[in-house]
Amino acid sequence: MLSRRAWLAVGWLQTLTLVVLCLLPLERMPGPDLPWTDKLYHAASFTLLMWWFAVAVPPARWLRTGLLLVLLGVGIEFAQGFVPLRAPSFADVVADTLGVLLGALLAQLTPAGLPAWRRRT
């Protein structure tokens, strides 16, 4: 199992990977060409990030964590306005926000013993 420090390091690596992927100039999104695929990617990514960080911090810090992740999503959308073949989207920010909320719900349902340390209360 990962130590708390390693768990957080992996979370930051996931965050960096998400930012890089969101800022790549892609002509077409990978995966199926279905409506809302991009929004599902956003929601799933931010669900994972919120869950990952929420199980590592006390519940009292979840609101701050969630707000920081939503601001990250806004920042990514702003930056996409400067990337060729990418465009900012308010709908992506909404999907990010819904992902953060879902991640917090999943963290609430996660048993405290799942990570290698006991979740702080």
Summarize the structure.
By secondary structure, the chain is mainly alpha-helical.
Give a structural overview.
With 121 residues, the chain is mainly α. The protein has one domain. The protein is 63% helix and 0% strand. The protein contains four helices and no strands. It has helices at residues 4-22, 37-54, 62-80, 90-109. α3 packs antiparallel against α4. The protein starts with a helix and ends in a 12-residue tail after the last helix. The relative contact order is 0.20. The mean pLDDT is 89.
CA-based gyration radius: 15 Å
The helix-strand sequence is HHHH
Q: Which quaternary structure do these chains form?
A: single chain
- Annotation, overall tally of beta strands: 0
Mean pLDDT: 89
Structural domains: how many: 1
List the helices and strands and how they pair.
Elements: H1 4-22, H2 37-54, H3 62-80, H4 90-109
Helix pairs in contact: 1-2, 2-3, 2-4, 3-4
List keywords for this structure.
mainly alpha, 121 residues, elongated, single chain
